[in-house]
Design goal:
Radius of gyration: 21 Å
Strand order of the largest sheet: 3-4-5-6-7-8-9-10
Number of strands: 10
Structural class: alpha/beta
Order of helices and strands: HEEEHHEHEHEHHEHEHEHHHEHH
Length: 367
Amino acid sequence: MLLNNNCYSERKADMSTLLQYRNLGKSGLRVSNVGLGTWVTFGAQVTDEMAEEMVTLAYESGINVFDTAEVYASGKAEIVLGKILKKKCWRRSSYIITTKIYWGGKSETEKGLSRKHIIEGLKGSLERLQLEYVDVVFANKPDPHSPMEEGNVPHSAVKFARYMEEIVRAFTHVINQGWAMYWGTSRWNAMEIMEAHSVARQFNLIPPIAEQAEYHLFQREKVEMQLPELYTKIGIGSMTWSPLACGILTGKYDDGVPIYSRASLKGYGWLKEKILCEDGRRQQAKLREVAIIADRLGCSLAQLSIAWCLKNDNVQCVLLGAASVDQLYENMQALQYLSKLTPAIMSEIDKILGNKPVIKKEVRDQR
């Protein structure tokens, strides 16, 4: 169901005072603390008209980050987003587009992080988006064919550094060509990010500014332990995705897998297994306890889960996904519950989850 103009105005007013803007890492790029992602939905699960409604609601509410990738719906997500942006005629300087490069096609040369694919992949994304440039292009995972990942190549550390040099040089090139303003990483580990930064400094190239990482109630260690240290050392920012763990944190899987849920979709058997396995059932039991806290605060479990992510000061932007305008609006409303997440409430949640990362202190030999 499409929203009328009056409804848009009301919802826009609701959100404008709640959004915050932060620098992405130590760059000068100011991002809204909530962004709109297009994974699964755009070009696949929702109609183009519904996608337009969601982008419009987000933009009119003050959200300035719109995230996509060359692999989403085999490029259709970028096409849908590009058509919307062209139709709306918003000032290009008023919003931020991020895309990700890694899986571009079936051919061996249409995937990975070779110089060839980084350049050709980004040019393909720009064509689908109908844009002259993106604001941030992310390397959408480390390349498993790098010498360090394969682990069986002589002098792998040296070869890994040379391979990383190719990656950093390629991203520096696309930035110098004006096809992107910044570049970042996604699902890279701390060592890989540090290596990219080291190579950039060594050869006077452009280092990554941020890491896109999965972050939610059941996925914490990287964002809470590793990324803050990388921010302190080299200024890497944090943009996080899947705050609802692919819908697990909404509570809709408490009694199994609903027929129209994401876990029932073709290609998401891995998610269904994750929900129905023993660990998944234990997680659902914990969520029932967290839901009691949400009820006490007057919000949904989904809103509490999103607000919990936003409460982390080390996270500059949380990417939201939605299958409808109403769902997006409800998720955006998580912002109003941030102030209710007091230290006592956060500790209560930690106690239920029992998974708060702890810094392991080295025990020194006193002899």
